[in-house]
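Protocol step 6 of 9: fold each sequence in the batch and record its structure tokens directly after the sequence line. For illustration, a two-sequence batch is reproduced in full.

Sequence one:
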Amino acid sequence: MGIRGLTTYMNWSYWRQWRTIEVRGRLIIDAMSVCFVIHENNRIDWLHGGQYWELRQSYKRFITSLLESGIEPIVIFDGIDYTGKKSGVMLDRKESARQAISDILDKDDAESNSSTGSSASRLDKQHDFSKPAPSQGSTVIPLFAQAVFCETLRELGVRFVYADGDADSIIASIANYYSCPVVSNDSDFFFFNIRAGYIPFYNLHWEQQPVTAQVYYYLYFVDNFNFKSLEVPLLIPAILGNDYIEPLNSPCLRGDIAVTLLKYRERRGGTRSWRDKTHELILYFKNFSSPDEFLNCISRCCLRNEVSIVEKNLEIAKDFYTVNEFSIKDIMNKSEMTTSNGTALPLWMIQQLRNGQFSLSAMAPVVFNGSVLPNIIDNPKRRSAMFIGLPIRRCMYTILLPLLEESYVHETVSVDFEDGYSSIACNAANEYFRFNLPSITDMEKISISCRIDALCFSLECSSGILNWFEDKWKLVVLSLAFWTKYAVPDIHLIKSLILCFIVCSLDRDPSSHMPHSTDADSSQNNDTLHVFSMWQCVYHDTMKLNNVLMNPLSFTTPALLFDGRLAMYYASLADINNIVRSELVSSLQLLALFKSLMFVCTESLKAATKDGVQYDQTVYFNLVPVLISSDSDEDDDSVSDESDIFDYIYD
């Protein structure tokens, strides 16, 4: 995120100018940046699909330490990017994550096959599930990481809000309203004039009491490098680029920099790193009293189209890094949001979106008439686990139909590693006539029981069965029933997943339930991982549908449901029944819960057998490849005729 290499450069060249403070009072936190860096910093294993309890504990330690130091954190999440300007960058990141998943899991699979052979049994290979996986270079954020962070903040009573679009400028504006600093790991914040300063995450010493930090101030930066105006530093992102600005590749400009800094280069000597190039660019910009003077200079040495690109980039930078002042209340009170067809968004949807009770993934179809489905950590050699939730999403699109620009909702999904990303279309209009589902525009008038019935209908489960369970289990039950019917997993895996749910619900460290050395056949791990990933996808889509139906059922955080290593450990055991007895022997209530959940699954298996459902053999649609490009300004007009693109649509 931000400008490539800038944080490294600032830590190298500017460290003497950091001002150390004891952090007190309000502190604005960039949610998405911190959510990612905490996962990465704690080296939390992601290879098994998600260690959500461990991730939740990391979030709790961070927030609790701030609270104990007299800090009032205010957390701001990114919202929907209504402009679509960042879509290319986001798709590139998803592609990189998908590549990392494939590289590592394929490598593990190949090593397993070479060491155990094709005839290896379940118990042939030793694998220590109790220890974190070694660092794999690339970090992939599990599917529910953001939801876990959001629910953890709610649990701790911390104020948070979902903004509109990219939250960077909003975060800076809120910080100036409250006169407090910002914590992030995004180098874009080096160019916001935040009065109370910007604290890079690694400069926040939150594990000590009191919490201290090294703070960066934009005005100090301008003075330290002797920039002649506050706008001149904005030439840095205008040339190097960020998530919204393409970097300029100009041999002419590089030549002018080389001539201008010839004596400096002769003194320094040696090879030039990216950090050195950034430093040279800053030294070069110091020669200009204003951006206009710089533009006038390059107009004499650069091509006309390069000058035009710089002018355009500079205007984008000026707009992006402009800081206003407004409060959290101002964001919460913003009630005018429109959909892709120009219809005003219902107020309850806006309020729940702000409060983190309406998934951005559920909002995307309303805004764009399409959605880029999230990555899931699954077997890269099989079709994406995301496909299993398509019938649920069809029902969701049917409910949202009055807000859609057209009845075809376009999904972008990674089919598998070899095929990359493809586009699909669901015809919500056809489903509207087939399904007796409520309309989003009437949702406030519909009773809770009717909304629960709609949820159960969409997940092909009887609403009566929910009466057996506590509220916190009802949404889980629906996801289990659907997953069992469409994934048709082995009974052994069903028992493993349900036992994982119950053990995690006790809010204890899942690793305490795994001995230090266990037997597991890693050649089976990717297939087992894929089956469990399909449940995560189903629960994710169930959560979204629940949001669209005004949340008639409570959402249980995955941190109290799923731990990838624990589920994989249970799946590796030859005698799952014995471990069920040993884990649940002390509680008849938990044993009864296990049996009730198993009953739901066995009934779904019967329904799958009767209906002939099998996930891997179901052909939903033909797919059209999506070109991965970071050019956010690329026009989509090349895709003009849907009838030519989509050979098969739901009917």
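Sequence two, same batch, same settings:
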Amino acid sequence: MSSPPTSSPGLAASLLGVLFTPRRTFARLALEDSAKPGASAIALLALFWSVLLVWLWMQGHAPPFVLLPIPLEHYYLAQALVMLPVLTGLWWVHAELSHRLATRAGGEGREPGVRAALGFAYAAPMLAHVLAELAATLAGGVDALRLTARISLPAASLAVWVLSSVALRVAHRTSWPASVGAAFSGLLVQALLGALVLR
């Protein structure tokens, strides 16, 4: 008699796993037949980021400058409304480029699993950053947010790079230099694109 199939850990468990047991978590995610788990992580990030942006807009705050023809006083609201498609697109660009570069370096990873793993590698640190900013804003206002962002944003960005490199190495079995380089290239391109919108 065959044993019943085991269910995959939930979204929260996978996010925590990426932060505390990344290699084991990425090894499981790399076996996924769909990128949907990664998309779910990105969607959760977009939700909390949008909450932060709406709160800033409601308090009358605006970014110091923007690149798009949107009034400053309404920019945070406009950004909140498009966070899901923007973050999904940036994740897709990062995953596509990183996966292709790792494959060219001899990687063996399957595209759906790699996308899923990179979704969590991106979402987990950035979600921690956004939650820290949200908590700081609620506790001390925009000045506390700016102080927190000076620490949490660089730390989260570095963590995304490190975790993306680990995800590619686990999923593709590429060398560390190839994994780190592929992750950096994917993240650089998505960061340049994201700079057009994200504030």
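Proceed to step 7 once all outputs are recorded. Observation for sequence two: Confidence is low (pLDDT under 50) at residues 1-6.
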